[in-house]
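step: validate -> pass
step: tokenize input -> pass
step: predict -> running
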Amino acid sequence: MKHRCGWTKDDPLMIAYHDEEWGVPVHDDQKHFEFLVLDTFQAGLSWKTVLYKREAFRKAFADFDTKKVAKMTGAQLEKLLSDPSIIRNRLKVFGTVKNAKAFLEIQKEFGSFDKYIWSFVGDKPIINNRKSISEVPATSKESDAMSKALKKRGFTFVGSTICYAYMQAAGLVNDHLEECFRYKQILKL
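step: predict -> pass
step: emit ->
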């Protein structure tokens, strides 16, 4: 039997996400934007809730195409607020467009969002040696710095806790527990 991080419980979608995506270093800007959007909507909710609405978010936000999201109109966003398949938080829905615009500005300045965001961890994943889920923090000095920098660039819903969850998802930090079978697999990536 494979040992996994305990947060997956026995939920098939959570297990698939854990086994295939969580902690894998991301270098694709569209995937970065997707994780930022999803982590924004997770604020105050469980990851499971967001994961089960992921496909609806893909549809709602043009498959996380930042250029298309940045051009979404107020009318389009108002329509999303009546869509029960997503999390209908007005500030988060409208904030997604604001974040898309800020994301595009970073791409323009740095050539890619990937190049910019990986600079917060010295261009390589932070490898942690966690033995228990209780050792995993909600924030780090890197997520604090990322949060501050993203807010300065016009992002919203990017507090340090959201940034840390994003860093875990996008593989900027490996927080798989040492006993988890994915820990060593991700070290090899």
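step: describe -> The first helix runs from residue 12 to 20.
step: cleanup -> pass
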